[in-house]
Every structure is written in C-alpha cells, then in structure tokens.
Amino acid sequence: MTNSIGIPAQAHGVIALTASACTSCMICVRECPAWCIELESHDEEVTEPGARRPRTVSVLDAFTIDFGLCMYCGICVDLCPFDALAWQPDFDYAAGSPSGLVQGINELESWGKSRE
Amino acid sequence: MRNIDTALWADEFRELLARGFHFFDFLTAYERDSQLEVIARVVNPENKQSQLLATLIDPNRGAVTSIAITYRGAVWHERETAEMFGIYFVGLVDERPLLRRSLLGSPPMLKSTVLAARMLKPWPGQPSHRKQQPIGVAEDWLQV
Amino acid sequence: MGSGNTLDLVNPCPPGYQPSSPRTYVVAADPSLRVQILDIGLACCSLEVGSAITTGLLVDSATVPSPDHGTTILLISGTVTDALAPAVLRAWEQVPEPKAAVSFGACANTGGPYWDAPSVTKGVDQLVPVSVYIPGCPPRPEALIAGLRQLRDEITVN
After folding, report:
1. Is the peptide bond before C98 cis (omega within 30 degrees of 0)?
2. Which domains does chain A show, CATH number per domain?
3. Cis peptide leading into C139, omega within 30 of 0?
4. Given the DSSP bridges, would you call strands B63-65 and B49-56 parallel, antiparallel or unpaired?
C-alpha cells in the first residue's frame, strides 16, 4: 500500500490512526467539517491490581474515515489530544467505488507502518 | 470600510467612477447579527487607492439599487448575491440565476437556511446520552 | 427573492458545444500505459493534473511513439455543479469508445468540501460511470499516475 518514494515525509497524503492511543473522545468526529469520520465505542470496567475500585475505559469498536469526502484539512489531526491521528505521505489508495475510499481501523492503522 | 445609506448607494458609486475609481473589484453580501450588508470595492488604477463600501439592507425591503449601470462588471456579482442571499438589486437587467436550479426556498447563504444535506445525513458526532449540536447548523436545527 | 423568480438558467452547454480535443500522453515511468486525457479542469485539482504533465510524470505521446491508442480516459477533476452537469455529460458522450471515466479529487468523488452545498453535484458518478476514484483534496500528481495504473490493471484483467 505504501508507494511514497520521492514524496516528502510530511506530505498530507492520508490520515493514519493509532487505535491504542484513541480514547473515543469524539473530538475529531464532532469537529470534522465534512462529517467524514465515524467512531463507535463502548465502556468497559477494568479492575487493576491494588486499585480500590474498577476504572471505566472506552474501548474502540469502529473508526472510519471516508476519504471520498475528506477535505484533508487536518483539523482532526491538530485537535486530537492524544496524537492518535497523524499525517502520512501515502497517496496510492484509489478505489473502484466510493465505498472503497471508506477506511476502517485496520487500513487506517496500516499507514506508515512499513516505513517504521 | 465606509458605511453608505442604502438610498445613496448607487449615487456614491457614480461619484467614485467620476473620481477615477475605474476598476470594479467585487461585490458581495455579509450577514452580520441577522442583518444583511452589501459590500463592494472599487480601485483607482492611477494612484492604486481603493474604496470599500458597505450598506445595511433594510430587512423589510430587502433591496438596494444596482450599480451595474455604473460598473458593468458588477452584473455577475449582483446576480450571484441576489441568488445566494435573496437581495433584490433594483434595476439589475439580468436576473438569471447562476447556480441554483430553482429560486424557491430559502437563499442558501443565509445563516438561517438549514442545508438539506445536513438535514438528511445523520451527524456522526451525536452523543447517545445527551443532545448536542453539530457546528455550522442553526440553533433550532432538528434532524429529520 | 424579489422579482428574481425566473427559472431559465443560462444553458452552460449550448447546442454545438465541443469539448477541447483529448490529448494523448504516456506515463513516463510506464510507457506502455498510454492514455488520452480530456481534462475537464473545473477547480484547483486541475492544477495537480497540469503538474503531472509539467513535472514529466505524464509525457506527450508524440515523444514516445506507440501504435496502441488504448482507452480514452475522461479525467474529471474539480467541483461539478448541477448547472454544469449537462456539459460534463455531453463531454462524456463525445468521448470515443473504448472509454473510461476517472474521478480525481474529493469534489468529483462525492462533492467533498461542498458535500452540503445545494448547487454542487454530489459525485460525478451521478452523471457518468466512473471506473476509478482518486482520493485527495487535492490528490498529488503521483496519485493520478497511481490511479491510471489501477485503471489499466482493471482494463487488462477484464
């Protein structure tokens, strides 16, 4: 999927997700002017050893960006308090249908991985 | 920016043209505190000076005199402003819309106009446990 | 809207309208990929298409002769409004077979930043059958080449 030879590393090619950093706070979803991000999550109680009471954590179930709609403004990247979203220079992800431009957690997490 | 009485709007531009402001830059409208303002800019190419003029549109009348007789280039701008803000330009010879198929319904550039696309598509940011408004929709916006 | 209730739009596509002739290019890095591009440049995306040509990613076919004329690609880049839609449709109808349409950029793909605008067509696939959607706002010139390769692969497979 990565075909970014000769492309500046800071190029705004695609938006990558680090799912483990996402707290499902919904800031990106609500601030997106194109309404192109969708997020689903549920709460789970986690009891850590030695803790007095269980902690509630948000678990990410689904995260999609519709790159057909996305205007690549980067507001989501800028506003994410946990740096879960980041630009990657990849550009080679054309699709044969508009639904093929809707990327889920697996695709969004794959961007930039092969260069690390 | 100079504020001009709507009744003197066209006269003011005639005077500016006579004073050497031959270049018409643009004309558009602006919604400020639920009131519409028409703004236009002209330039004097000799000394590079420019004039930015504004006039507050009386909401009951919703009209201002066209300046297209003075500045022919204003025709397109006035057509666009009429179509997008619903302002009537008195004396504008060309009233054909540029982009809208039909002039029925609320002019799209007014803040009170709720765009159909935002009515039909569910806002992905809606929390399950409380009501929250998306950015860029009217306060009384209701999801269909 | 005052007395402005006339509905006769300026016909953006008068009878006898002729789109500019398609020009033939080959992909510099892959000369077997030969395309005729009728570029309908409607907005900022068309600058990226121009950039693909001026930076040498696409080169004029006259410099790389080939007997194969290939598929004519209608590359639609930019914001299509409903008022302009008939012109895009007519351009497509006038492209000789075999042909394919490529949508370049968010506006052509879905309406993009203008997804809520009442005057913008929400995707050119409402007008013509699109084979490849190239994402970006705007896409890089390299993305055009990648999209054309993808289209060629699809044509080859079929």
Report:
1. yes
2. 14-111 (3.30.70.3270)
3. no
4. unpaired
Our CA-based measurement puts residue A33 at a distance from the nearest CA of chain B, in whole angstroms, of 8
Judge whether B106 lies within some domain. no
**What is the spatial distance between Cα A20 and Cα A64, in angstroms, rounded to a whole number?**
15
Spatial CB neighbours of B105, under 8 Å, sequence gap ≥ 6: none
Q: Is residue A116 very low, low, confident or very high in pLDDT (cuts 50, 70, 90)?
A: low
Domain-located, residue B126: no
Percent of chain B, pLDDT > 90?
Answer: 54
pLDDT tens, residue by residue, B16-71: 999 999 999 999 999 988 889 999 999 999 999 999 999 999 877 789 999 999 99
Asked if the model's pLDDT at residue B99 lies above 90, the reply is: no
Model confidence over B118-131: pLDDT tens digits? 888 888 988 777 77
Q: Do C118 and B116 touch (CB under 8 A)?
A: yes
Cβ atoms of A76 and A35 within 8 Å: the answer is no
Question: What amino acid occupies position C43?
Answer: A
Contact at CB, B124 and A33, closer than 8 angstroms: no
Q: Assess if residue C50 is contained within a domain.
A: yes
B:114-143 residues touching chain A, CB 8 A cutoff: 121, 123-125, 127, 132, 134-136
Q: With beta carbons under 8 A apart, name residues in chain A contacting B130.
A: none
Domain count, chain C: 1
Closest Cα in chain C to A101: C135
Q: By CA distance, what is C120's nearest residue in B?
A: B99
Q: What is the pLDDT of residues A59-95, one digit of tens each?
A: 999 999 999 999 999 999 999 999 999 999 999 999 9
Distance between CA C112 and CA A68 in Å, rounded?
A: 7
Q: What is the ipTM score, two decimals?
A: 0.87
In a domain, B30, yes or no: yes
How many H-runs (helices) and E-runs (strands) does chain C carry?
4, 6
Structure tokens at B73: 């280039």
